[in-house]
Design a protein that fits this description.
The protein is α/β, with parallel strands linked by helices. It folds into two domains: 97 residues, no CATH class; 180 residues, Rossmann fold (3-Layer(aba) Sandwich). Helices cover 48% and strands 11% of the residues. It contains 14 helices and six strands. Strands 2-3-1-4-5-6 form a six-stranded mixed sheet, with helices on both faces. Strand 2 and strand 3 form a beta hairpin. Helix 4 runs antiparallel to helix 12. It starts with 12 loop residues before the first helix and ends with a helix. GO terms for molecular function: GTP binding; GTPase activity. Pfam families: IIGP (PF05049). One of its GO terms (cellular component) is membrane. It comes from Thamnophis sirtalis. Belongs to the TRAFAC class dynamin-like GTPase superfamily. IRG family.
Length: 329
């Protein structure tokens, strides 16, 4: 048996094999260069903690990643496509059982949360349309308890109305993350196609300028503009919207939304791959630690259930679960 490494007195023999690069009994050798790249964070933490303490820390990280709430508010005028957007961003069809109710008249009477099917801690809030009898612009944010939400998405279609301007200005004052969505862009494109001199890029640029000018007139607002279709979530600015929101969230919430998003560009897949590598390393190392040292409260990580749960989360992250496959079918 290799000698015990005095630099890591709290580490059981299998961990010393890993962190000293000594040869394991099966003849496999993990080099220090490899360990430096793959387990730099783990090694740094290990130098400051015992295995049970580090395992408990990683369990806390995993629990936070799986349970930390993320609240996204979707606001806008009646008929702008708010509820359809709530469904689209959750990978849910309008006629699915868990879908937000849609229609040509206002369906939302009070703020209502809809959990993301693959990540229930992500709550997409369908807010009542501004300008209705119960939700005037002047006291709208107070009534919907704006402090509850991490992010505001304002949805409009066609013309920018006075109520839209008032809502945008009120949201801007909260200093919350604010994204401006111009929905039904596919309908606008189809309408413009009737013109003899139609040009797709020019039409999109014209609509974007109109939205930016409208926001500027509403109070010199600097919200980003995203042109989307709720029926074509892989086109226009829908993928970029989700990537932008995720990129500007705090770290753990960024991971939650990134893994829940099901638009698979090469860039997005690379980001998901790195996040899942970190997740898998933590799950594996916590499980390993529990097998070596009895860690109070972590027995669940020593069972086959944790491996099945990890596999399930990987499938969900890459859109291989039943719910995701149903949405893209």
């Amino acid at each position: 048996m290799p000698d015990i490494d005095e630099k890591h007195p709290n580490v059981s023999f299998p961990f010393q094999i890993i962190f000293t690069g000594q040869r394991a009994t099966m003849g496999n050798k993990i080099t220090k260069d490899f360990l430096s790249k793959q387990f730099e964070e783990f090694g740094r933490d290990l130098s400051q903690s015992s295995v049970p303490e580090l395992a408990a820390k990683y369990q806390k990280d995993l629990n936070e990643m799986q349970n930390l709430p993320l609240n996204i508010a979707v606001a806008g005028s009646v008929g702008a496509g708010k509820s359809s957007f709530v469904n689209a961003i959750r990978d849910v069809r309008d006629d699915d059982e868990e879908a937000a109710e849609t229609g040509i008249v206002e369906q939302t009477k009070d703020p209502k949360a809809y959990p993301h099917p693959s990540s229930p801690q992500i709550q997409i809030w369908d807010l009542p349309g501004i300008g209705t009898d119960n939700f005037k612009a002047a006291d709208y944010l107070k009534k919907i308890q704006f402090e509850t939400y991490d992010v505001f998405i304002m949805v409009t279609s066609d013309r920018f109305t006075e109520n839209d301007a008032l809502l945008a200005e009120e949201i801007h004052r909260t200093k919350k993350k604010f994204y401006y969505v111009r929905s039904k862009i596919d309908i606008s494109i189809e309408s413009e196609k009737r013109k003899r001199n139609f040009d797709m890029e020019e039409t999109l640029a014209k609509i974007r300028r109109y939205c930016e000018d409208s926001l500027s007139k509403a109070g010199d607002l600097s919200a980003r503009v995203f042109l989307i279709s709720n029926w074509k979530v892989d086109k226009y600015d829908f993928p970029r919207l989700q990537e932008t929101i995720a990129a500007e969230l705090p770290d753990y919430k960024k991971q939650i939304l990134t893994l829940a998003v099901h638009h698979f560009s090469e860039k997005e897949l690379a980001v998901k791959k790195e996040l899942m590598k970190s997740y898998i390393q933590k799950v594996a190392l916590v499980s390993c630690a529990c097998g070596i040292v009895r860690v109070p409260g972590l027995s669940m990580f020593c069972e086959i259930g944790i491996l099945l749960d990890a596999l399930k989360r990987i499938c969900i992250a890459f859109g291989l679960d039943d719910q995701s496959l149903h949405f893209v079918a």
